[in-house]
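All the exercises in this workshop are built on plain-text protein records. Sequence and backbone structure share a record, each on its own labelled line. The structure tokens are whole numbers drawn from a learned vocabulary of backbone shapes. The record below serves as our worked example for the rest of this section.
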Amino acid sequence: MNVARSTDPDRIGFDPGRLARIDDHFGRYVDDGRLAGWQIVVTRRGEVAHSSVHGLRDLEAGTPVEPDTIWRIYSMTKPITSVAAMMLWEEGRFELTDPISRWLPEFADVRVFDKGSALKAYTVPAVEPIRVWHLLTHTAGLTYGFAQTSVVDALYRAAGYDLGVPPGLDLAGASAGMAKLPLLFQPGTGWNYGVSTDVLGRLVEVLSGQSLADFLTTRILVPLGMTDTGFWVDQADAKRLAALYTPHPGTGRAVRADQLGAAALAPPQCLSGGGGLVSTAADYHRFTQLLLRGGELDGVRLLGPRTVRYMTRNHLPGGGDLASLQPQGFAETVLDGIGFGLGFAVVQDPVPAKVPSSVGEYYWGGLASTAFWVDPAEEITALLFTQLMPSSTYPLRSQLRQLVYAALVG
């Protein structure tokens, strides 16, 4: 299944000449070696206005990006896991205010970092339990070891939680290990990007009685026709997987990162609901269309429309933005003017972020510079796929927004 342009862009309000700027601009990233290749899809009102590929999926092999190229989507897994959880919520399996220790007892007595260093950390008891909504909004106090912005991050790395989990742990074991580490803050009092959605994936397993892979496959991926999305790429499709790259510290040119990239070629021991999936543009396009249509696509309904609207409102404490709740740290987004819902960043005010988004637009991205957004006001979805990590290397996401919204004239 490919995503080809299906309509005349000007019929749905896009200037074709202005859309052409997208390929011209991002083509320069390939021409000067900063990116190996990329794929971009833009839709409006369910019709594809722009779809393009450029460059190579594997520089060393000389193989081009093709419409069915498979990409590591890393944290773009999070919205899919969040939808899985909210499907169970719609079935009455839990309330958003429920303490997660009801099903994950290892989180019953979590502690919060108070002061000290990674060598001698002082902690205090949590005064509020971690609740399900804290996982969905990243307000639980959990973090990422690779973020390297706090003492708690260092404690994660020391325990083996860096870009992955300690060897030999499945998702249940990893979740139990995370529960032993101190929280960055009292649950519900701040925002910090971290392993919350991995723990949420474990909650999906316990509530459903299925592995996360089986739940996602049977309840989301197969019903939606997302046949190229999963936790690894089998041998038959391995040639379609794009290579993973990092920037050379001196030249900025893309340098192959096979040690990390090879992980996608075998079944993982730990199923990461926060960052483990690979996918294609066609598959993720179907996921964004499901969201845009309020939880239904081609007769398949996964969520009710009120649930999707509720998920994509700002749920941060006090209605604040990310900048007010996380003054420092790593995230797949700018912070000013941006709220967070149940699995998505949400634009509260586009002016502080300095991009011409619509209020209510929701989105997320992945560590290898992939990104998507859904704009309900303009009925737009957009997808960007490439394989350069970290995602903070170049301002690809904001530039794509500039170009897409500059092309919207009707």
